[in-house]
Give the backbone structure.
Amino acid sequence: MNLAVPPRLRSTHTLLRELAPHLPIADRVLALSEAVSAHEVFRSLDSVADVQIFMEHHVWAVWDFMSLLKSIQSMVAPVTVPWRPPRDAAAARFINEIAAGEEGDDGPGGVPESHFAIYLEAMREVGADIRPITRFLGEMDFGFSWETALEIARPPAAAADFVRSTLRLCERPLHERVAAFTLGREEVIPSMFRPIVTHLAQASNQHGFLQNFIWYLERHLTVDGDHHGPLAAALLEQTCLRTTAQRDESLTAAEGALEAGIALWDAALASMRRDTGPLQSAAG
């Protein structure tokens, strides 16, 4: 495998559209991706309670994104002693670049912070409940398996199901992980976050408690939308579409990842609809 972006920049959706006329599952993955992108939840953050509920669901996707990424990194750019060069330096650079940004980006305060830590701080500012996610991590630090820690932490049921689906996927072959990562995460993130930023822009100017949340969203729009897209397409093509068997298994994995995402957002929206108050300060 040699990850190289061709002169005509392509997206993962371009690859799927080329496959769709001859492969029904490619058409289904496209439809699911569009359903995630157009989900009403991203246009429904109308109150502080809505933002809190959204973040209390989404933080689990922020966390398990890293587990999926690290599972890919462990194979594309493994840590070995004695060291051996990666088989594909461009693929290793792409995955390492994402990991480096996620784990130590220049944060809102100008100092290195992980995106996860920034998200937790944004949750604190808006008054969202961080106890389930922090207890989950604490229980794993204490030695419990992730399955047991998840039961103890008691996140929203749909978030727990989403995490289970992701972590089980981390045990699947590399091509399935890459498909879920590129099609189920990298491709859809900009279209998920853009309407939230637009919707909350005015409120952010009025309420400082949204600033870290907006920073997180805008940072992902910049990185995932402007740079990672073509590289993700190249990784997908060269890891997942080389043989018929890999292609079918990869698209099936992507289909499952997108369906899990839709279930998560359906549940978040259902919880949000119980609140119709205006967007005001988390302090009241």
User: Anything to note?
Assistant: The CA atoms of residues 48 and 279 lie 5 Å apart. The longest strand covers residues 105-106. Strands lie at 105-106, 112-113. The chain is about 70% helix and 0% strand.
